[in-house]
């Protein structure tokens, strides 16, 4: 029986590329593994997979009775629905430690770096397994995506060195140009339904018993949202009600101006404003310098709820 | 401000030697660190520290506002009481994933091996830091203790290879003889109050909302308990009542016969018996082949409570 290697719900490029890269490594060291996914792939991820010649991993939602290697999260809300009936054999991640628990020993490769694929590169090095050119390519793209081409405060020297090493393996001379191509794909929002945009990179967090959903759209220029912002606002309000959430935040991130406009629907606006030390206007606020949900948006709110 | 490196409550040799070894490594790579402990050291640990010329780490119970590196556990019940007010920067462990969570990214070096010190050796290798002879000595002893000189089912080839490498660094020719000396120290229970014996290696677990305490005493011959078994039984009954526990189990492990007598006080004897598929007599049962609390005692009970 194989081990299923799976990233979080509403998979991003790190979850998909990481599952492929880790499953390959595990197969090379004699542990039969299959990369899977918990949802549709984003246009950015489709661009990456297409560029390096990969199919999307198999869509698989149920893992009861199976062995699972978790990629890019350690939160129950982001894991398969029936994870409690599966055996978690490992976790590779770069986020805060969440509420997943196990009843048997496991391996955890968790590091405070910018991307799970940077940690997976460490695993390749540990096992002394060569990284194929096309896998190096998707790993590199995942790191450029998560670190916003090194601009995010989550980016560490380990991520930069990792991208440089992977670029050499993959034979990519100008990886920053590749990163910009990727973010151009990500910036093409025209004609996409609001719900699809909001859910493109959306994570639920359990904050002291309150369900808080936080979405993020990273683009090259916020003007792409001018015509659809009202639709986005209406949609996150609907999403809050549907999921019985305490709050839904949507970050519209301008990777060139290096900041985010946050759209807010919440049961407690004062709590959100105090978390970010800001004053919103019409439930919107520009947060200068805020690029990272993980490092700049989740922890202050977590503290506000504590 | 230093990072405090601390093992679990009622520290065993892995917690103490691991804290010393990891603090040394962290200091070598430029991260100021101080090894601390959450309780008295056991006679076995005192023997190890004395043999290799170490003082016991500083006793420190409060960590509010401090940065902490957790060794040998990931359970709230085993962590400092005020851990929620500290920042956990890392966890090195070899147990099931417990209920510690964080609000910021951290590093986790968790592996399904026999001892945290085996994982710490991997960290030394990763950072390419030389292990001093005396630190190699205490790390080796911790691994021999946790793996019961390789007899425990928790022992992996990684642990054995690690001990062999550490023995070479420490210049120890007959590490098995050293292990037996250590277990002889551990077997000297005469004259020690029952409570001290019970608490020598005692861990509380949160099993689906129920507090379950499990102690273990590993000796070379169970006959050392003949005269004090009634005292031990009375003491775990008291311990159950004092802590409002659902159950307290005490494992009297014979490392030569390779099995354990389990003393049981519980609110639900049928549940405990079904977990181990056994029938107790006078709240006692011999479990043949059972040497490991972590691998053979906790998971079946966890499942019974699930």
From TrEMBL, chains A, B:
Keywords: Hydrolase, Manganese, Metal-binding. Its EC number is 3.6.1.1. Residues 179-305 form the DHHA2 domain. GO terms for molecular function: inorganic diphosphate phosphatase activity; metal ion binding. Gene3D superfamilies: DHHA2 domain, inorganic pyrophosphatase (n-terminal core). SMART domains: DHHA2 (SM01131). It catalyses: diphosphate + H2O = 2 phosphate + H(+). Its cofactor is Mn(2+). GO terms for cellular component: cytoplasm. NCBIfam families: PRK05427.1. This is inorganic diphosphatase. It comes from Shewanella pealeana (strain ATCC 700345 / ANG-SQ1).
């Amino acid at each position: 029986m194989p081990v299923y290697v799976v990233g979080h719900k509403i998979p991003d490029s790190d979850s998909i590329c990481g599952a492929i890269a880790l499953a390959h490594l595990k197969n090379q060291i004699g542990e039969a593994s299959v990369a899977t996914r918990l949802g549709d792939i984003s246009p950015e991820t489709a661009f990456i997979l297409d560029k390096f010649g990969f199919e999307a991993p198999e869509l698989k939602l149920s893992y009861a009775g199976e062995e699972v290697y978790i990629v890019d999260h350690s939160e129950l809300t982001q894991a398969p629905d029936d994870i409690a009936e599966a055996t978690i054999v490992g976790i590779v991640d770069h986020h805060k430690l969440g509420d997943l628990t196990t009843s048997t020993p496991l391996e955890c490769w968790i590091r405070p770096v910018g991307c799970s694929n940077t940690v997976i590169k460490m695993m390749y090095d540990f096992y002394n397994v060569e990284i194929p050119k096309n896998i190096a390519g998707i790993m590199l793209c995942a790191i450029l995506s998560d670190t916003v081409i090194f601009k995010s405060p989550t980016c560490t020297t380990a991520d930069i060195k990792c991208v440089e090493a992977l670029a050499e393996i993959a034979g990519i001379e100008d990886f920053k140009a590749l990163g910009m191509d990727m973010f151009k794909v990500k910036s093409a929002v025209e004609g996409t339904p609001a719900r699809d945009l909001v859910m493109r990179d959306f994570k639920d967090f359990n904050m002291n018993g309150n369900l808080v959903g936080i979405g993020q759209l990273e683009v090259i220029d916020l003007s792409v949202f001018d015509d659809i912002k009202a639709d986005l606002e209406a949609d996150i309000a609907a999403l809050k009600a549907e999921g019985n959430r305490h709050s839904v935040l949507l970050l519209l991130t301008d990777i060139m101006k290096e900041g985010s406009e946050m759209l807010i629907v919440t049961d407690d606006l004062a709590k959100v404003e105090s978390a970010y030390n800001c004053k919103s206007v019409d439930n919107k606020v520009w947060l200068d310098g805020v690029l990272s949900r993980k490092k700049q948006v989740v922890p202050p709110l977590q503290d506000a709820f504590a």
